[in-house]
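User: My instructor asked us to take a sequence, write out its structure as tokens, and then describe one feature of it. I'm not sure where to start. Here is the sequence I was given:
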Amino acid sequence: MKALLLVAALSLPCFAGQLEVEYSSFYGHLKKIDKEELNALQFSFGFKKAGESALCHINSANIITQKVTLPVEINEFERFTLPTEKALNMAKAVVALDLTEPNNQCDMSVQLETKAEYLKTTYTVAELKVLAAQYKAFFADMGGFLSFMMPSTKGLKLLFAEPILHMNTESGLQVEGKELLLSDEWLAAISNDLVLRHNPLRITAIVEK
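Assistant: Let's start with the prediction itself. The structure tokens for your sequence are:
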């Protein structure tokens, strides 16, 4: 079971460590979830080291048009989010990045996850079911008539900073190291709030092909 992770090649090499990517490359992803029924989800972007699972270190990033330069915040996981702005796409904006690694060793990585406001210690039954339903809706939209070729979601995956040692798995919860897995079956049966000791770092979907 793997979280959604899409990798795409970059097309605008600059100097070693410097990279410019057309905003349109990101906008193509962003507009897919620019819907009210998917308002809990976001795409986060990073740059995967060639041949490795680790991400390249981003020193700084900016959205640049002919008229403005907008700073982009990089989080502790070497990822960032971008606004969904048709105007930036029409203005042919670029995202300029300063990387520690040479730019030809880094490929764009796109990850679907919940927004930061959903990273907390207490979840109601309704909140968890809404998150699971939004992931299912996204994959259903992307599949269309080729849905048999798309992965399917089987619940939610919560990632924490440290291995999980305190959860009662007798209740049907699954723990895999730093990950807490909430299966569709568990979500269907849950009747009480889910209370955690720490905020998860990220919530993605449990995905199966």
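For the description part of your assignment, you could build on this observation: Residues 1-13 have pLDDT under 50 and may be disordered. Try explaining in your own words what that tells you about the chain.
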